[in-house]
Amino acid sequence: MAKAKQGLIRGMGTHRRTEGDYMAALLDIVTLDDWRDVVAGALQLAKGGDAQARAWLAQYLVGKASASAPTALTVQVNQWSSKDPLAERLARPLIHQEKFPLLAGSEAREADIQDAIAAELVRKLPTPETTAKPAPARVRANSDDETATKLP
Fold this sequence. Notes:
Low-confidence stretches: 137-141, 143-152
Region (Disordered): 125-152
Number of strands: 2
Helix content: 40-55%
Shape: flat
């Protein structure tokens, strides 16, 4: 008895939520003004000596140290040999294209594979939850003219 064709993706899933879906929900709720307030508060705390606020700001402003930083020996060897790892990494796709011209047009094949996987995801996973949501309703507060946001 022949086995049924599996497809490109094995198994089935119970949801299709990704980090992007959660980020979209976060972006729907947190406005730029809200974020400015958070950053301004962290800045004030950091200036006041709060080490966690300082570390948080530094993480966004400077970034975390990469675990793959080259060793001092590697830096010295690259300097002595006149190697530039960044230039080599940027040149690699062009060199590959020159060496293997028949593979240079593989972008269309890659797009075909991505389309096939996307179609299979539609069959195997439920439709993703939409990130769009209605705008919050604005209602008047009880005693004064300030507006309050009431979320559904």
